[in-house]
Amino acid sequence: MIECVVNLSEGRDLVAIERLAAAAGSSLRDVHHDAIHHRSVLTLINDEKVLRRDVRALARRSVEILDLRQHEGIHPRIGVLDVVPFVALTEPEAPQARALRDETAQWLGYELGVPAYLYGPERTLPALRRDYRHARTPDYGPWPPLPRSGAVAVGIRPVLLAWNIWLRGLTLDETVALATTLRGPHLRTLGLPYGELTQLSCNLIDPQVQGPDHVLDAVRARHGDQVVRSERVGLIPDSVLRRIDRSRWAELDLSPEATIESRL
Prior knowledge:
CATH topology of the largest domain: Formiminotransferase-cyclodeaminase, Chain B, domain 1
Helix content: 25-40%
CATH superfamily of the largest domain: Formiminotransferase, N-terminal subdomain
C-alpha cells in the first residue's frame, strides 16, 4: 500500500471540500481542514493502480473548482493543488512510490497544464518553495503558471507527522523565534499567526526519533503556561502511537482511531 497526502488550498468552503473528498474515491482515508490556514489535507492510501486513478481524479477536480486568486490564508502555498507527496508504507514499495511521483508530476505538467516541481532526494520541500519564489523553471509543464491554478510540488518522503501547537500570549515574532530554536534534522517548524493566538506548525520528519511528546515537552519547558492545545493533522503510524504513554494521547490529539492501520 502507498500513501498520498494531498494538501489543497481550500479550508473554508465545506461544499467544495466534500466534492474534493468524493473525487478521491475509495482511496480516501482521512480529511482535515482548517479555515484560518485555508487548507485541507486529504490522506489517500491504496494499491498503486487505484491510488494513481484517485490522485488524478482529485487533482483534476481541484483545478476545476478552486481558484488561487480568491485564496487568502496563513499557510504558504504555490497552487490550489499545493503539495502531493507519495509515501511508501513499507520499504519494498519505495520504487513504486517514486515511480508514482514521477509519472504524476509529468501528467500534471503536460496533461493538466499545472507546472510541477519534484522534491525528495533532489531537494526538500522548503528548498523547493524558496526556488519557486525565484521563478525556477518547473520540472514538468508550462511556465509561467496560470494565476487560477498556480503550481504543484510533487514529492516522495518517509512517513511523517504533521502536528500543531497553539500558544496564547506570545507575539508572532516570539513564536517565529521559538520555531527557529526548535527546528532540526527531525523537525521542521513555522511560527504562524492564528487569530488571537499564535501557532507552532510542525512537521515531525522522523516521529520515531522525535515525537510530538518530545516537542510539547520542549515548548512547555519554555512557555508551559501559554500552551493552549495541540492538534494532529492526518494519520499516524500505530508504532508512533504505541511508543507514547497512553496517558498522554489526549493532550497530543492522538488515538488508535487516528492510525494509518485503523483506516485500512
